[in-house]
Write a structure and sequence with these properties.
The complex is a heterodimer. By secondary structure, chain A is mostly helical. Chain A is built from 14 helices and three strands. A three-stranded antiparallel sheet of chain A has the order 2-1-3. In chain A, helix 3 crosses helix 11 and helix 11 packs across helix 12. Chain A starts with a helix and ends with a helix. In chain B, strand 16 and strand 17 form a beta hairpin. Classes of the chains: A mainly alpha, B alpha+beta.
Chain lengths: 271, 446
């Protein structure tokens, strides 16, 4: 009897441990990264987006022909060998990408918004522009780039594999963001002390055009006192329609065929 | 054993569900929204009727021009050139061909129809989302034909509200001091006009000097400063009846009047023996209440929109600075600490900001700060400018600016200017004469 209880107890403990380990948010560890403005990363991804070099392409085609009888390779899925090369080129794990992205948002955006929103009288414009600071900024970006490289070099092969689930790379995400920034006319009269987050789920075709768009908090539109949310949601939908086809990666449609865009106007409106 | 593997597999399987990619969009553009304002369609019979009454050939086009001008002046919209429109107004109002409007990069489209019904003007309008291909709003107004400009302003307010998320400010009026003559011999009259400068009317003859007119929240009363028995006194004027009266029976001079948010009280400064303090007077029972009691000069009081607080300027610290206190006069706190002198504080209708005039190193600035004094932003700088007044939605400030005279004493002028809260869209507001001390009314249609 006691033995059965002990076995049962042990089994339950095991289950709890497995459950806990399998929950991704528990596995995530806070990573303390320095603020990085990742200019270099964009170039890395550009490289990975370049089609196979002619020489390499020939070799791959030969290998393909040999294996043709054994395997069926779909047009969209890249050959296995090449896929590995791609991973090596962007050895950033999921969590790290997200963290870098977040830090970048904090550092870069408010500064830019302030120059646009805050002060426009001539005398203060002069104060805002300091030519001497350009050299300092260039130096800072060099240091930041070096730090980015150092960080990416440290990432292991194990972490690398997680990128398959991570979605877009930093530069792919940046390209998409930059496109939508240009299309989104933010309604300026919204109350900035309210929750101004609109989440839109998209279904995309391989060329980036939109099959379906869905506002995730649709019910909020009809709640009393939330009239501004409708205005905001409509502006976000307009931005998506204006921007389409979206600037998505040329490969990996499976990965991003469903995409969620979180439009948050608060940062811009708070100025 | 197999059961265990299955169980583990079951637990681990949700990992794949986290693969939905999320992208945060935290920035957008602040460019004016491209909008197409199609001329309102009008049938021939209505056209000829309105031509007889109003001497306007095409009232539909005239009303759409009012809407277009308002939207352009706001700085938030870019009305597109009508020559590029491919669809006729009457068909566009029934069923717009969105591809055509998309082609000219319009994101919103305004269409409408004007008819003459029972000696009245009936205007219907529709706002369309061109990109989504759907109607956003449809309304109709009926009024006397002479009100056609107001209909244009009301349409603009509705469009503005639907597209920006905040109330409009177009169906409003501005009261100001009209100035004529040389700088040393100015004739000052009270004048009132629509916010776009049309329908200008003079309310006083110019026999007495008038200063600092302020609208009541009810829009029918104006309080201002004029001279009574050679003493500056606060007056009350009913715009509709033309009746005016002196406010209170004070032994000294009263100045800097302003209404409370409910329109039931007037708050002002009363000066006697070199000391000025802030007083209120109830307009119903005429009871006067002293709010501040300090040997310094306390003036320019302005209520917060909820009526619980008052901002004013005082030199109690040695220099003129801005203060905030409870409406009872307690808890006085200084909120301006920057270099220079601060004056004419005005609480925003939204309640979150206070606009002010600042004098620093011989230059005048119009600026805003939060109600606790943080976040000071100077919006515009000039040789001489002051007296900011908020639009009813708290988006735009109107003030007046004077120019320098040359060595011969010529070239002096005083004009009204407006500027957006963000510091953009600084524009001169056209007036028939020189103008100063503007005050913006609240929306006429509430």
């Amino acid at each position: 009897m006691n033995r059965n209880i002990v076995i049962s107890f042990g089994f339950h403990i095991l289950l709890v441990i497995i459950t806990a380990m399998s929950l991704p948010f528990l596995a995530k560890k806070p990573i303390d990264l320095p603020p990085i403005i990742s200019v270099e990363l964009i170039q890395i991804t550009d490289k990975t987006n370049i089609p196979f070099a002619p020489k390499a392409k020939k070799i791959i085609e030969k290998v393909k022909e040999k294996e043709k009888k054994k395997k069926i390779v779909s047009e969209q899925a890249p050959p296995k060998m090449v896929k590995k090369e791609k991973q090596d080129a962007i050895p950033l794990p999921d969590e790290k990408i997200k963290k870098i992205k977040e830090i970048k948002e904090e550092k870069q955006n408010p500064e830019k918004v302030e120059t646009e929103m805050k002060q426009v009288s001539e005398f203060e414009k002069k104060d805002l522009f300091d030519p001497n600071s350009i050299a300092a900024l260039i130096d800072k970006s060099k240091v930041d780039t070096a730090l980015t490289k150092e960080k990416t070099d440290k990432i292991t092969q194990d972490q690398d594999k997680s990128i398959d689930f991570g979605g877009l790379s930093l530069s792919e995400e940046d390209a998409l963001k930059a496109q939508i920034f240009g299309c989104w006319s933010i309604p300026l009269g919204l109350p900035y002390n309210e929750n101004l987050l609109v989440r839109i789920k998209l279904q995309l075709k391989p060329d980036g055009s939109i099959i379906r768009s869905e506002i995730l908090d649709h019910a909020r539109m009809n709640r009393p006192g939330q009239g501004f949310y409708k205005v905001l949601a409509e502006s976000a939908l307009r931005a998506i329609k204006l921007c389409q086809p979206l600037r998505v990666p040329s490969t990996g449609h499976e990965k991003w065929k469903e995409l969620q865009l979180n439009f948050d106007a608060r940062e811009m409106l708070e100025g | 054993m197999l059961f265990r593997y299955l169980l583990i597999l079951l637990i681990l399987s949700p990992l794949k569900a986290f693969a939905l990619i999320e992208v945060d969009i935290t920035r957008g553009n602040l460019n004016p929204l491209p909008v197409a304002v199609s001329p309102l369609s009008i049938d021939e019979k209505s056209k000829s009727n309105f031509e007889k009454i109003l001497k306007k050939k095409d009232l539909g086009s005239e009303i759409s021009a009012v809407v277009e001008n308002n939207l352009r002046q706001s700085g938030l919209f870019n009305p597109l050139n009508k020559n590029a429109f491919l669809q006729k107004p009457d068909i566009a109002n029934l069923k717009p061909r969105f591809e055509d409007w998309n082609l000219i990069k319009a994101q919103a489209l305004i269409t409408g129809k004007v008819t003459f019904v029972d000696e009245k003007l009936r205007v219907e309008f529709r706002l369309w989302d061109v990109l989504a291909g759907k109607e956003m709003m449809a309304l109709a107004f009926t009024t006397v034909p002479s009100n056609w400009r107001r209909v244009g302003h009301i349409i603009t307010d509705k469009v503005y509200e639907r597209l920006t998320g905040e109330n409009g400010y177009f169906d409003t009026r501005i009261i100001y001091v009209s100035e004529e003559g040389s700088k040393t011999n100015r004739i000052k009259k009270l004048a009132i006009m629509d916010q776009d400068g049309f329908n200008n009317k003079f309310l006083t003859l110019g026999n007495e000097l008038v200063l600092t007119p302020r609208f009541s929240p009810t829009n029918q009363m104006v309080t201002y400063l004029s001279y009574f028995r050679n003493l500056p006194r606060v007056y009350l004027l009913d715009i509709e009846t033309g009746m005016q009266e002196v406010v209170g029976d004070f032994p000294g001079m009263t100045f800097a009047p302003r209404f409370s948010p409910d329109g039931k009280k007037i708050i002002m400064s009363f000066a006697q023996d070199g000391n000025s303090d802030i007083y209120t007077m109830d307009l119903e029972n005429r009871i006067v209440e002293r709010i501040t009691n300090h040997p310094s000069i306390d003036t320019s009081p302005s209520y917060s929109p909820n009526g619980k607080y008052i901002t004013f300027n005082s030199d109690r610290s040695g220099y003129q600075q801005i203060y905030v206190m409870n409406s009872s006069g307690k808890n006085v706190k200084r909120i301006s600490f920057g270099n220079g002198l601060y004056g004419t504080p005005v609480w925003s209708p939204r309640g979150d900001l206070i606009a002010f005039t600042k004098l620093h190193k011989g230059k005048f600035y119009i600026g805003v700060m939060r109600t606790d004094g943080t976040g000071e932003r100077l919006l515009t700088e000039n040789f001489y400018q002051e007296a900011p007044s908020w639009s009813p939605n708290g988006r735009v400030l109107i003030f007046y600016r004077e120019t320098k005279t040359n060595s011969k004493g010529e070239g002096f002028s005083a004009k009204l200017w407006s500027i957006d809260l963000t510091g953009y869209n600084e524009k001169m507001v056209g007036t028939e004469t020189d103008a100063s001390d503007p005050s913006w009314s609240s929306l006429l249609t509430n």
